[in-house]
Amino acid sequence: MRTPTLPKRHFSRRNFMQAAAGGLALTAMPGFAASMLTLPTARPQVFAHRGASALRPEHTFASYAKAIADGADYIEPDLVSTKDGVLVARHESNLIETTDVAKRSEFANRRGKRMVDGQMHDGWFVDDFTLNELKTLRAIERLPQIRTANTLYDGQFQIPTWEEIIEFVAAQSAATGRVIGLVPELKSSTYFRDAGLAMEDRFLSIILEHEYTRRAPLEIQSFEVANLKYLREKLGHRANIRLMQLVVNMDIRPMDVAKAGGKLTFHEMVSPAGMRDIATYADVVAPPTRDVIPLGKDQRLAPPTSIVDDAHQAGLLLHTWTFRPENRFLAADFRDGNGENARNEAGSVAEIKRYIQTGLDGFFSDDPGIGRLAAG
Q1: Does pLDDT of 15 surpass 70?
Q2: What structural domains and CATH numbers belong to the chain?
Q3: What are the residues facing 284 on neighbouring strands?
Q4: Which of 3, 23, 69, 159 is the most buried (most CB within 10 A)?
């Protein structure tokens, strides 16, 4: 299935030249200009999910470096806010699963319970820590029983800031001679706004001030709607930036919609009419993999849904999340007999290739090296 082109307003020569004139001039790096003009490419883009999180503790420079070395087109930092308003990379506001905070006696009195995105959480929360305090913590493996090899890196890496990640990727891009995109997610925007730590303007300030993010491919993602609409209003249609609406095919509402008393559900958003609405403010829709090809009762792949075609008909790209290389995460078609926690590279490659056949434009993978093998 041929990958669709985006509406001309996104990638027209006129808009590209206007962007360049507005301070988005390309570097002389080989391939840089071509990368901006040829997105989307004929092959699906590989997004490193929290870095190479199958091989290194997530959201660490080790994870990002491994992802880049293994050929990822983009690396993903999930962004949350510290107490003093600094954007840092964690998948959620609760630090208990991905840092050593539970072993740090100096912070024992900060443990508590808090409602985040409609669910009650027990632990330590990033917005109760200043950046200086957060930097004393060290990352640990989230899934130690499954990814036991990753625990060898526990305690070695700090939590990186958004600005540090940009500088790291810029350095890696210069060192490797290839463009590396960034696909940041603004996590729990409503939660942080209610805490007096709204992230959008700080995020915008950083990406517009930093030379690399003014020019490199950037996809900004969120499960909420209002923040993406706000970013579109502020950013317009820049040649190097896409906005990605994350969705799940369920009758639940985005948190900002629920907070405002709205009725719109994700299920409605992934209908053909809902996707046409998404296309008024975003460029990409991103459902989970099993919304593209679901599992049957036998845990084997069922026939594909129409979601990829529906997205393309609406003028959207479709990126799906998330492929993981261990048997427990694979459809039964592709598992081997080595145990549910065993890495199964051949099975993972085969599964991803089945999904690529639906015509998707990109995908997130915990192991971008495997993703690269599948995508070519």
Answers
A1: no
A2: 8-93+159-375 (3.20.20.190)
A3: 244, 317
A4: 159
